[in-house]
C-alpha cells in the first residue's frame, strides 16, 4: 500500500541531489556564489549544462547579464560553507570572505572557480528559458577541471571524495560506495 504524496513538494521526491556551488560575476567583476541542487547535464554534443534558478535570487541576474558561470562540485567536507552560501544573499553578504573559500582562475571564462571543490565545469550561457517560476540557464561547457586523482576512467573515486548531496530543508548527506555494482 502507498501513501499519497504532496504535489506542492513534488521535487523533494527527487532528492537527494548533488550540491554544487555556482560562481558568477557582477558587472564590476566581483564574484558571488550560489548553492544549487537543481542542476543537470543537458546535452553531450554540444556539451551543455543546466541550472534552475528562481528569478529573485541575486545570482539569477548575474548569470543572465554576464553570461558565464562556473559549476563547482562540492565535497561533503564543505557542508557548512555550502549551507552558508545557500542561506545568505550575495546582495548583502560577501560569501567568499565569510566562508574563506579560495577563488582561482578558470581556464576559459572570466568567472573564477573554487579551489576547495573537486571538479569544475566552466560554462558560457547559451540561453535562458523561463519555465514556471524558475529560469533554466543553459551553458555550453567550454572547459573542465578536476583535482588530481579524484577520477579514474572518468568515474569519481567515491572512496576518495564524498560528494555533498542535498536532501531537503536544511539537511545534507553523502554516499559511501558500500553498495556499488559495476557491469
Task: Write a short abstract of this structure.
This protein is mainly beta and 183 residues long.
What does this structure look like?
With 183 residues, the chain is mainly β. The protein has a single domain (16-173), classed as Roll (Pnp Oxidase, Chain A), CATH 2.30.110. Helices cover 13% and strands 39% of the residues. It has three helices and 14 strands. The chain has helices at 58-66, 79-87, 95-99; strands at 17-18, 20-25, 31-36, 39-43, 48-53, 68-73, 103-104, 113-114, 119-131, 134-146, 151-152, 155-156, 165-168, 171-173. The strands form four sheets. A seven-stranded antiparallel beta sheet has the order 3-2-6-9-10-5-4. It has a three-stranded antiparallel beta sheet with strand order 1-13-14, with no helix packed on it. A two-stranded antiparallel ribbon has the order 7-8. It is globular. The mean pLDDT is 94.
Beta fraction = 35-45%
* Coarse structural class: mainly beta
Overall shape: globular
**CATH architecture assignment name:** Roll
Mean pLDDT: 94
The CATH class name reads Mainly Beta
List keywords for this structure.
183 residues, mainly beta, Pnp Oxidase, Chain A, seven-stranded antiparallel beta sheet, three-stranded antiparallel beta sheet, 3 helices, 13% helix, globular
How are the SSEs ordered, and which strands pair?
Layout: E1 17-18, E2 20-25, E3 31-36, E4 39-43, E5 48-53, H1 58-66, E6 68-73, H2 79-87, H3 95-99, E7 103-104, E8 113-114, E9 119-131, E10 134-146, E11 151-152, E12 155-156, E13 165-168, E14 171-173
Antiparallel strand pairs: 1-13, 2-3, 2-6, 4-5, 5-10, 6-9, 7-8, 9-10, 11-12, 13-14
